[in-house]
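Sequence in, structure out. Go.
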Amino acid sequence: MELKNIVPLSGTFMLAGLLGAVISIILTNSGRLPLPWGMAFTVTFVVMVIASMISMTYAPTGFIKK
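Output:
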């Protein structure tokens, strides 16, 4: 499988995923957020973090030689 034109996700995307997951976990454990909503938000933000890690793996590492 050849991957072309892969653009890495921004660092703020990963930061938003990390902060969102931590905040969702804290709010769910404290009882301010119901468990189903807390799980849904946590899974969503963890998927964002995983997607940003995968995009870093396939990101270009240097300059393209012509």
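Check: The mean pLDDT is 86. Helices lie at 11-30, 35-57.
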